[in-house]
């Protein structure tokens, strides 16, 4: 009930019936440029300088092989030698290559342990090449690791907070290769809505065309589907300047009615456009409590008897609720007030919403997480 009460408090100013629940937003806030997407990079490397918290070379043979290969590349022979040091850990290095990144700029990288290392705190990532999906090397990473978690261990107790086998290297990678495609080589702009919706896509297209008629003398945008809006580049326009002008246009964004439920945490999020048909709901819970209170029976003095345990069990059943309520949700405020009026907890409200959806009275999409 606290979750529903919170929703009702946050939406105390919800619009009345018949009013639109659209929100005004800039195009840059509701859409992204298809040519401006990020690219994922990945690499395999070694972390050195750990204080005995690295991989066990016997349990992680790939760490030993990688360390030997690295030393051989540095001109150090490792034939016939065997190391039991636990100061090295094999890691996977990942990063996101931002759009329009140029060689020489830096990006953050994430380092994750691949073997049985217990902590990466205090380690340093050795030069690691980062490749894209095409197999080309786009960046090289190296630097000291920043670990947010910590672990302390004694003979009889262990304290761990956060994750010690994952770390970040801020500005740890240098971009060495730029993407083959250039932004200025594009013949059009493709805007992708972050929340696909036909109404929003058409409104974006109409807003862009209204601006283009005043600036360029004709329409340039077309809504391809619920997610993509294609903008043709006018001959006299500069592509970067055109995008800068369009991304600040204000559009009335619309979203479908949804109810999002997380049964693990008891979180309930109800959208502003959610409505339910007139429906009667009865909710009641049966609680059975079993209490064991065994009694110790001692023998009488000099009776040569034995101490015995006599079991004693108390069972109590309680039934709460059971009242019938009429729910009719023409708007969000009425729906929240009706659910709060039943007086149930969030887990009960989740069951009620699922039942209303099964009855066909919930006019919204029910999303279970």
TrEMBL record:
Pfam families: FlgI
Places the protein is found: Bacterial flagellum basal body
Keyword Cell membrane carried by entry: no
Main subcellular location of this protein, as a coarse class: other
Signal peptide: 1-18
Transmembrane parts of this sequence: none
Keywords linked to the UniProt accession: Bacterial flagellum, Cell projection, Cilium, Flagellum, Periplasm, Signal
Subunit description: The basal body constitutes a major portion of the flagellar organelle and consists of four rings (L,P,S, and M) mounted on a central rod.
Family membership: Belongs to the FlgI family.
Protein function: Assembles around the rod to form the L-ring and probably protects the motor/basal body from shearing forces during rotation.
Name of the molecule in the record: Flagellar P-ring protein
Source species taxonomy: Bacteria, Pseudomonadati, Pseudomonadota, Alphaproteobacteria, Hyphomicrobiales
Gene this chain is encoded by: flgI
